[in-house]
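Dear support,

We are seeing what looks like truncated structure output for some complexes. This example has three components. We would appreciate it if you could run it in full and send us the complete token output so we can diff it against ours.
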Amino acid sequence: MISHATWRKMWMTALGWAASLVVAFPVFWMVLTSFKTETEAISRVPHLLFAPTLGNYRAIGAQARYLRFAWNSVVVAMGSTLLALLFAVPSAYSMAFHPTRRTRGTLLWMLSTKMMPPVGALVPVYLIFRDTGLLDTRTGLVVVDALANLPIVVWMLYTFFKDVPREVLEAGRMDGASALREIVDLLMPLSLPGIASTSLLAVILAWNEAFWSLTLTAAKAAPLTAFIASFSSPEGLFYAKLSAASTMAIAPILILGWASQKQLVRGLTFGAVK
Amino acid sequence: MAQVELRQVRKSYGGDEIIRGVDLMLRDRELTVFVGPSGCGKSTLLRLIAGLEEITSGDVLIDGERVNEVPPSKRGLALVFQSYALYPHMTVAENMSFSLKLAGVGKAERERKVMEAARILHLEALLTRRPKDLSGGQRQRVAIGRAIVRHPKVFLFDEPLSNLDAALRVRMRLELTRLHRELEATMIYVTHDQVEAMTMADRIVVLQGGQVEQVGSPMELYNHPANQFVAGFIGSPRMNFLEAKAKENGEGETELVIGGSTATAPARLGVDLTGTGDAVTLGIRPEHVQVVSSGGLPTRVQGVEHLGSESYLHLATIAGEPLTVRVNGQTEVRPEQTVEVAFDPRFVHIFDRNGASLRRADDPSSSPAKPVGIGPGVSVV
Amino acid sequence: MSTTQTSAGRRSRASGLPGAGNAGFYANLPSIGVLLLWSVVPLGMTLWFCFRRYNLMAPERNGFDGLGNFRYLLSDPGLGMAVWNTVLLLGAVLVITVGLGTLLAVLFDQEFFGRGLARVLLLAPFFVMPTVSALLWKDMMLQPDNGVLAFLWRSFGFRPVDWFGRLPLLSIIVIVSWQWLPFAVLTLLTAVQSLDAERIEAARMDGAGPIALFRYILWPHLGRAVSATVMIETIFLLGVFAEIYVTTAGGPGFASTNLSFLIYRYVLMEYDIGGAAVASLLAIFLANLLALFLMRSFARNLDT
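Here is the complete output from our reference environment:
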């Protein structure tokens, strides 16, 4: 005898797995393709069984180009995250613990700067970068990514800081802590998990950022997003190698993202959904 | 020496005035309790003294020195928070020595002071633990320890016992008063619990709506409440209030007619009731009402609470006004019964229409016991 | 009346501190400063270039041009298409992700075997960089010769579709929806899980069936999460660029050109700064129009 509840659970299992397999299939397929030969990869009848090869990974890894792009991605993601945190931590501290009647408006204004599509700023930013020599430099991309992510980082930190009991910081103040000591000795250790997941989100956003990478960088400072895009030209039609390069490009973020999924909701919805 | 003085202190947020001109002198080595209902401004007042909130107008003086612009840590005060506000990422010892560390005190000196505080508070065994591994009472002690190590001029307590269970609260109450004696410190203690105020305070400041209602020792407040609010707030169960009319009885005596009751009695109150109009409020504490066999104010029993050592009768007058009576020991009175009660005239309070207490010429606490003349009304010689 | 409420709300937190309080206030200024620069300087420059003749290929022909750029842009057949495509892309992706997302959120709220792992797989697309997901769909899924969908079509006896040639905007909508579906699911699932189980039980006791439960209990509860999801997705969807850049390059013709891509074409393909500035202005205007509605509903749901 199978109970009603068990039937129901089996149905849900089938439905749930079907949905997630369909959604994840393209990624799965890409990873699979990265282990095929180029001939297998463009076969009209998809191969599910084949002799896996690491040749594509070797070919991509052997390219000095690839390593440079990957290094650019690392530098830009880390650099822009650190820069954004440097501005956002004091800012979020200020609004979470020293609110004024304008705080709410300030927060919403910061968010609204994010509403402007990046392309709206393309012309001026492009010209400024051209005139200051920042075009195709990692510094330039670090600055732009940090600015683009700053509102989100401020918001996310703000919602985490709001969870720190106010009295603890007040106790610190009674004990003689300056604002800087309050932040460094009390607030940051106490909200470390929040700061960590905020940084993670900033790294993910910067790593995956494509608009500014494609418009402001070329051969020198281009990160992986731009490198992958170069495969779209007709002469770059090597599906297996593209798959290998793509798999390597998304693997670190996929792992980081899965590890922090719970916190990401909160950060990306600006604390509206916890 | 440590005394705190407030001069016309006001605090407003936006348009709301939370503290409306408070003048206070808190004396050296006294334990002063700020008490009042929630929202009365008592915690705000404490935070103004601490420097955690900025004063809108007026002055705070510590030892005669104006400290309005002095940051909290430089005022020589220590504050124990309601939530304890321990630093969760530091051990007990680190929690207690944080302020010393910030002040640049040497390591040896820090350890000596922490040990001293730990000894006073019996925390020696817990010094390496973190707050999350402590019980509520232990956290409370650490919070106090954090204050003690600084040797502050004044200790401030913001409802420190409200997160503890009833039994622990009684114990900590005693411990805090012991500490007060031992340290010979000036303390300001905020609570909404009048029992804490009565049991611990040298002096009580009753606050309501951002204003001081009365300042005095616990017994002064109990015996001579300045107004109906203080009378109702101090003492448990709370004082009974009955509407009454003052009347001239034609013999030059003032008589009080208690609402709904036709029974009257001469009330030579020694209170000048002229000019107050004829409507006053009579106040009498439950412990000062007696059940009598006849000649009293008739009431109907609404309910009876038996506590063993004492009982409370919840009565209603003919006019429907509630009246609580405390009876020693146990009682045979049952609900729906009718009983007659009389008031001990020594303990009757009279308030005018605005709630202000009308002081009598003689002091009720000093007048000799006079169990006669008890009636439904009041008779005071 | 509302003023007393807000001031009461502030009372519990507000603190103006002598000394430390000022530092606390000033700590916010660097962020405000750079964001102000980041939003005002580009806007000012854009406004300036709107009225200038300025082509990077012929910088010497620089000068005041009156409404020339506006006239030029309005005569561009691509403009109407770009605006329409932008709106269509936004609307379609929002409907698909929030609709499917709600269903999947309810599904993943149920107990089933391996739910944790299935949920992790479901989230994968969100973490894939846009250029990768675009190429992935273009070269491996939707490719008309050896793509997976072409194989499926053939298996069922249909002729494979030339997705990017015949249905370019739909293809882009599919890719972008695929990228954003996980975000919607995750957000809505978090919201579904925060629903008090007792409230559902109470509704059951009152005789509510599954449809009534969804309609009267779950959907209203999701309001806040839906409004947040719509707002965040809108922020990113208005700027969709890489997916178009990598797949159709806006074509064929203007069939899959949105405002972002149109502006990109003006700047980096035609080097026409003036034209791009006017188009940017339009994009900013459109974004702000949407922002006005969205921010208002979002701010209502906010407990700062």
